[in-house]
Amino acid sequence: MLIYGKEVAANSLKKIADETVDFNNKYGRVPTLAVIIVGDDPASQTYVRNKINGCKQVGFNSLSFEYADGTPQQEIVDKVKSLACDDSVDGILVQLPLPKGYDEEKILANIPDSKDVDGFNASNIGCLCLNRPRTVSCTPLGVMHMLESTGVDLTGKNAVVLGRSNTVGKPMAMLLLNANCTVTVCHSKTVNMSEFTKKADVLVVAIGKPKFVTADMVKEGAIVIDVGINRVDGKLCGDVDFQSVEPKTSYISPVPGGVGPMTISMLLFNTLMCAKTRQAE
Ligand code: GUN
Q: How far apart are CA 33 and CA 64, in angstroms?
């Protein structure tokens, strides 16, 4: 069966929109997300536009700040600092990747944990590891919602994550561990990767190589979530060779239409959580 992120995301968006009405009734304001983008990368511009549209859809306020490539880093740091102090702002997102020459770490370090809607800050990652999650990186959080939508109990399942990035692979592994899976993380230096993937009841693929996972690497009846977004000959495809793998799976997410649509709904979910937490303090 297919897991369509769009449908799962639509359910989340409906809940967030309802909660935004409650939030507004209670506090007389709506959550506000500030987005910063540097440069004119078309993909990043599309993502930012979609994030702003997502805010509108659930009734949030949004602020967007666009800087040309070449803007002094200090100017961007100053903007982040001023948003950090602005009580009307609940979440701050700096669209990544930044153009060459900018120090991502230095800029992101100015986002307070309480407004870190990406869940990228060390202390938010630490809280996830301690199974006391605050904000969690949007893509892996979206994958968990997709897995939940299957109704399959994850307890005791062998989960294998392909990829160990700080933004996807590592938080994904932690979320699956917190959901009582037995977790293996494979990466570019893993020897005999298919020995691991063949044992996976749940396989999450975020390795950034088009059609990398083939049918011979997958266990019969597995749940396969494809986080990859690659463009091959002008067409979008994932990290999983969907055609050959799909018949072996119990559930599989397609690309496009799978994980992609979840990311924005999870960003809005995190923004609402930050707003609620800040309001309660
Ligand atoms: N670029 C691609 N995905 C993301 C994301 O989840 N957050 C940010 N800040 N930048 C991204």
A: 8
